[in-house]
Specification:
This protein has 19 helices and 23 strands. It is α+β, with helices and mostly antiparallel strands and 599 residues long. The strands form 6 sheets. It has a 7-stranded antiparallel beta sheet with strand order 1-22-21-17-16-11-10. The two termini are 26 Å apart.
Length: 599
């Protein structure tokens, strides 16, 4: 059973059913193309029978979909490494998990190479050249819906460029080989299951209003697709075929960019061919945080995750979290929530794209963080938390101009590892469910709505209820602030590697924080730490969110300490892996029907 306090352990299994937690495997997801049919080999027999956990001495992968995880393993079996596996999985998710991510979105990639170097690759979307704050107003007032639905909501996609660059610099196989399994599934189709259809149905009206989306997600009678229906995407298959044949330049400088440009001009959109042509993948310096006996590599701005996870770990360093968790779990969760309040308040004032605004490096100063946490008490909720102002205002370093290229030239997370020491963590997104709800006819590509991740006005929250400040205001070419937090932790003495990431808007960074703590402090396996209940606080609204897995006794104590509690169906979804000298382990979140696979 899970390594949890006894009273939380008793309620976890019961709450799993209320939270919709399931471990549905590939075998239970009947579809024309099953997980073991993606490649030209049979599914490995030495993996764990549980679909959300796998172990191997050669290679592992975890994602939110069995077909994506199996595509990763097939890539490694065909001579590729963990990089090839991650790119194959990412592209497959563009086909089978299109409500979360795809070619029309962006990503952050954290890579650990066999030499031990960690690299942060920024494939985040950028604001179009025509995007200025006045473009997102109505009657002189900020118009949040214009950043969420329709042509104006779309930022320049970065995922294709990031995957292409990653593969050319660190992979073994070609882009065409990585694309082939995804192209096949797009052509032949796959059977939809309940979880994906629920997401589709939740935005059915908006999808139906867009001709391109309507042609993909509705049947001949005009009804939204349902569980058991086969989703075929011939236009997306054609786009993937062009990418395989002509490469990423076709997407950014060729016919795809021209087609999107023409449609945007005709539909009052802002994205232009020049935006595609000017897009660059950036190679950023990871944040290196020291916590206990681990070196933790975190993603820097425009991710807010790395900065605030590092802040939180610094604050929590002085507490014995193991003892709190085992003996007084209410104090453990209280401490997490209060720390989250402190760091998320700083997010609003200070965080943005470091290439456009001065993000103060003093946010990670130990003296500053001690001052921030000086009012933190284990006996009650702090009365007021406001953003701080570090003394050291030295700006965060700007990125190099371009990611070096060997050829001279609602979010999801996946992770892969191989026996050579490659570890890849990719968090990719189109932002909210089905992004802008726009598919340019003939492309099959769902376009993002990342303009909603910018701040469009004082006091105006985005779709996730997050407030923003001047540092995250819209500017042409700027990358919107993100919570995506692909992370890698390395134990100093043994060299054991732990990788994790999550999906869930602002809950991403608080989830990754909890996963790291459960790995380092509580010594839980990837499978255990993913199943454990999570909490979340984002400063505004002033609400302490929790999953139903917390015991009633813990909930009552948190209320007595002053927490305004609200129960979430589930907080987020995540994937994790652990690599040591004996074995590679990967796990996918049991809250959704994901999958882990071993080679």
């Amino acid at each position: 059973m899970f390594d949890l306090p006894a009273r939380d352990r008793r309620s976890l299994l019961h709450s799993a059913f209320r939270c919709g937690i399931a471990t549905a495997g590939a075998a239970s997801l009947a579809r024309p193309l099953s997980a073991h049919q993606v490649g030209d080999t049979t599914e490995p027999s030495n993996r764990s029978s549980a679909s959300n956990f796998a172990r191997s001495s050669r290679g592992v992968a975890a994602s939110v979909h069995p077909l994506a995880s199996q595509a990763a393993i097939d890539a490694m079996r065909s001579g590729g490494n963990a990089v090839d596996a991650a790119v194959a999985a990412s592209l497959m998710l563009s086909v089978v998990d299109g409500h979360n991510s795809g070619l029309g979105g962006g990503c952050f990639i954290m890579l650990r190479t066999p030499s031990g170097k960690c690299i942060a690759i920024d494939g985040r979307e950028t604001a179009p050249g025509l995007a200025t704050p006045d473009r997102f107003t109505r009657d002189g007032q900020p118009d949040p819906m214009s950043t969420r639905v329709g042509p104006k909501a779309v930022g320049t996609p970065g995922q294709v460029a990031a995957l292409d660059s990653l593969l050319k610099n660190h992979g073994r196989r070609s882009f065409a080989q990585a694309i082939a399994p995804a192209q096949r599934v797009a052509e032949e189709g796959f059977v939809l299951e309940a979880y994906g259809c629920k997401r589709m149905a939740s935005v059915a009206g908006l999808l139906k209003a867009d001709p391109g989306s309507r042609s993909v997600y509705f049947d001949s009678r005009g009804q939204i697709l349902r569980p058991g229906d086969t989703l075929k995407q011939p236009d997306l298959a054609a786009t993937l075929k062009q990418l395989a044949t002509r490469g990423a330049d076709w997407f950014y400088e060729g016919d795809f960019a021209k087609q999107v440009d023409a449609w945007m001009r005709a539909n009052d959109g802002l994205l232009r061919q020049e935006d595609f042509r000017n897009y660059r993948v950036l190679n950023r310096q990871p944040i290196l945080a020291r916590y206990r006996d681990h070196s933790i590599y975190l993603f820097p701005p425009p991710s807010s995750g790395g900065v605030h996870i590092a802040q939180a770990l610094s604050i929590l360093q002085s507490y014995d979290l193991t003892q709190l968790h085992d003996k007084t779990p209410d104090a453990f969760y209280h401490l997490l929530l209060e720390t989250m309040r402190l760091v998320m308040a700083d997010r609003v004032r200070h965080l943005g794209d470091a290439d456009f605004v001065d993000v103060p490096r003093g946010l990670l100063d130990e003296d500053y963080l001690r001052g921030r946490a000086s009012n933190l008490s284990l006996k009650q909720v702090m009365e007021a938390v406001e953003p701080g102002q570090p003394k050291d205002t030295t700006p965060w370093p700007k990125s190099p101009a371009k990611m070096p290229d060997a050829a001279e030239k609602h979010t999801t997370h996946l992770t892969t590892a191989d026996a050579d020491g490659n570890v890849v963590a990719i968090t990719q997104t189109i932002n909210t469910t089905y992004g802008s709800k726009v598919i340019v006819p003939g492309t099959g590509v769902v376009l993002n709505n990342e303009m909603d991740d910018f701040s469009i006005g004082a006091g105006i929250a985005n779709a996730y209820g997050l407030m923003g400040g001047q540092a995250n205001r819209i500017q042409p070419g700027k990358r919107p602030l993100s919570s995506m937090s692909p992370s890698i932790a390395i134990q100093d003495e043994t060299g054991e590697i732990f990788s994790c990431g999550a999906a869930g808007g602002p809950r991403i960074l608080t989830t990754v924080l909890q996963l790291l703590i459960r790995h380092i402090d509580l010594k839980q396996s990837p499978e255990m730490l993913l199943a454990a209940p999570r909490v979340h606080h984002q400063w505004r609204p002033a609400t302490s969110f929790m999953e139903a897995g917390l015991s009633e006794e813990t909930q009552q104590t948190l209320k007595e300490l002053g927490h305004p509690l609200k129960t979430l169906t589930y907080n987020s979804t995540a994937q994790a892996l652990r690599c040591d000298a004996q074995q590679l382990q990967a796990a996918s979140d049991p809250r959704v029907p994901g999958a882990a696979r071993g080679l």
